[in-house]
Predict the structure of Zinc-type alcohol dehydrogenase-like protein.
Amino acid sequence: METKAIAFNTGFALIEGNHFEEIMWQTESLSPLDVLVEVHAISVNPVDTKLRQSASTDQWRVLGFDAVGEIIECGSDVSDFSIGDMIMYSGTEKRAGSYAEHQVVDSRIVANIPKNISIEEAAALPLTSITAYEVLFEKLGLIPEENGNLDENILIVNGAGGVGSIAIQLAKWAGLNVLATASRPETSQWIKQMGADISLDHRKDLVEQMRELNLTEMKRILLLHSTDYYFESMAHFLAPFGHLASIVATTEPVNLSILKNKSASFDWEFMFAKTNYDYQIDSQGEILKIIAQLIDDKKIVSTHTTTLEGLSSQTIFEAHRLLETNRTLGKIVIRVK
Amino acid sequence: METKAIAFNTGFALIEGNHFEEIMWQTESLSPLDVLVEVHAISVNPVDTKLRQSASTDQWRVLGFDAVGEIIECGSDVSDFSIGDMIMYSGTEKRAGSYAEHQVVDSRIVANIPKNISIEEAAALPLTSITAYEVLFEKLGLIPEENGNLDENILIVNGAGGVGSIAIQLAKWAGLNVLATASRPETSQWIKQMGADISLDHRKDLVEQMRELNLTEMKRILLLHSTDYYFESMAHFLAPFGHLASIVATTEPVNLSILKNKSASFDWEFMFAKTNYDYQIDSQGEILKIIAQLIDDKKIVSTHTTTLEGLSSQTIFEAHRLLETNRTLGKIVIRVK
């Protein structure tokens, strides 16, 4: 069907002005496992701003990797969902995103929204929750059960960002002692609010701050900010047989041998890899189902803080602008319907 | 007690002549979990030659990380072993090695030798078996059961070395399809004999050879030779969510970001890390017990090929010389008693 979408066709910096445009866009035809969604709210993520700057194409590109919407049509093989279901999803890099009034999405990567939160709160969840869940429970070897990892600890570098805010909550739910870093009084307070047991300042020497707490090593360290900058010090601080994980690409080669005599591992987490490579795709729907249950059970909360009204090139531009200030706390949601 | 040992006190290259010396050496006093062993046979490993070159000390250093011997005294808390037991072990970097007629070893890292093989064959097993077992089943996520990993495959770069020869056999036992590399007709034949399904030539382009086999990626790749040289091409060849593991330290920084969009992992395996850092030490005794059982059940074979007679500075020097030719096949054992 034809739908309104916000798109761009040449990568641009915000300083060049607003090159997002409102276009009429043809949604894809439904494959057997797809659903067609009327989008009610979307959220923006740092990956959106990166792609907006780098994507260079002759075709319109519709970004957006978080949405809540109502199913208005189901593919022939969809059995888990029905027309009228209000669902949430992050989507994939391979298809048109959620900056649109209607979107086609694979039903294996969606879940019904939690019962007792707002549409905006639900729209803030998918990308950050899937990423945080995957890295904690599929990469770092933690057990995805309430208090399933007592006596374990984790250091989350940049705990106040989107992924960090959910990762802190999931790690606390799973029973870990959580150290997280921030760099300003507001973000430090925020990570405490998310449940961090200890707040450190990642603009200062982290190793020194941990030594003051009598910590000489950590078995699990999650880098959510500049792997280039933190790799070496955190690799030295990692415990033997530990896991150092990151979601932020390196731009320079790293000294991997630091980890060698500790028989340690380095793990990348990239949530779009599953849909990009057709690898256990339905696990992302399962993860969102678990997240919805954890919200229903009040074990974790949405990190939504900011709402912009209406899908337009102006609200999308404003959302990108806010993200790029690096001063926002919590997730920015755009109410579409 | 006082015992004969072969030692050196300044790191040396073989070209400088034989600086191993026969000395009388005081074994350590037994801690509660230790046993005192009369050494019957030892084996040499590449790590020995590295330490001989680099170790610089004013004290005598006794190397040796593989032995079979008879227990002649037990520490007060040893309950799993008795005087007269013939055991095998690799030992640890932290204590005197097996180039000696008597040695003290922690009973948690030893096992009774297999029933139906020679002392020499048993002495060839510990270090390579523990390393191969740990990397396959503790790092690469394989299931340590016979045929427990059907439909899985692995590429072992440098399959003809000590660790590779056991890793091929353990991977075959565990049900994997095994691709291994060698560089000469003899080593290529050897890895087939160890059970490799496919033999590749690691002096030629590995990716091209795998493409000819219609393989475009591998989920598990084990580097047992020059991580510096193979990291980049193998990182590119690794499948999404794959694991690239290595036992060979890098000397240069590596481009870790190649693995990022595949959400993949890099794992170091270093067998001395457990005893160096007091981490699950008894797992190494357990591994050797499993290895002995697999030998008894004829599921795997010892890789022993060469025996030198008698513990002397000459036999130790000759063993190091043979290792450094890089032309030996199978393990070199020195019969001590």
About this structure: Residues 129-268 of chain B form a domain with the Rossmann fold fold (CATH 3.40.50.720). The first strand of chain B starts at residue 2 and ends at 10.
